[in-house]
Automatic annotation (TrEMBL):
<keyword id="KW-0554">One-carbon metabolism</keyword>
<dbReference type="InterPro" id="IPR027417">
    <property type="entry name" value="P-loop_NTPase"/>
</dbReference>
<protein>
    <submittedName>
        <fullName>Formate-tetrahydrofolate ligase</fullName>
    </submittedName>
</protein>
<feature type="region of interest" description="Disordered">
    <location>
        <begin position="1"/>
        <end position="21"/>
    </location>
</feature>
<keyword id="KW-0547">Nucleotide-binding</keyword>
<dbReference type="InterPro" id="IPR000559">
    <property type="entry name" value="Formate_THF_ligase"/>
</dbReference>
<dbReference type="Pfam" id="PF01268">
    <property type="entry name" value="FTHFS"/>
</dbReference>
<keyword id="KW-0436">Ligase</keyword>
<dbReference type="GO" id="GO:0005524">
    <property type="term" value="F:ATP binding"/>
</dbReference>
<dbReference type="GO" id="GO:0004329">
    <property type="term" value="F:formate-tetrahydrofolate ligase activity"/>
</dbReference>
<keyword id="KW-0067">ATP-binding</keyword>
<dbReference type="GO" id="GO:0006730">
    <property type="term" value="P:one-carbon metabolic process"/>
</dbReference>
């Protein structure tokens, strides 16, 4: 499944095994599906890439996107369900829902602070 394709994805109520691996995605190909040419992709190893800001100067991107077509959704807080579904689950569901509706959807998830998880103070908790 690719969130950019807007394909219908079969839904299963069975929990996914923890050992289930995701397929490797070529970041240049992923950027191309988002409309970003390879010359603007700066790889940092196999799994990380940054996008050069000069991508904004690309043909077709020089004019701002009309306000009625650009949307930015931030999931900052949610009360988790008894099943442990929280912000990440909701954010993934939103991205999949938008893709299902045929919208271009790109999702980024940030790693939460590890300090509170391990009961220590400070942002450098690991």
């Amino acid at each position: 499944m690719s969130p950019l394709d807007g394909e219908n994805v079969p839904v299963s109520n069975a929990p996914a095994p923890a050992s289930m691996s995701s397929e490797d995605v070529n970041l240049v190909d992923l950027a191309a599906r988002a409309g970003i040419s390879a010359e603007h992709v700066i790889p940092y190893g196999r799994d990380v890439a940054k996008i050069d800001l000069s991508v904004l100067d690309q043909a077709g991107h020089s004019e701002p996107v009309p306000a009625d077509r650009a949307h930015y959704v931030v999931v900052t807080a949610i009360t988790p369900t008894s099943f442990g579904e929280g912000k990440s689950t909701v954010a993934i569901g939103l991205a999949q829902g938008l893709a299902y509706r045929g919208r271009r959807s790109i999702l980024t998830l940030r790693q939460s602070a590890m300090g509170p998880t391990f009961g220590i103070k400070g942002g450098a908790g690991g």
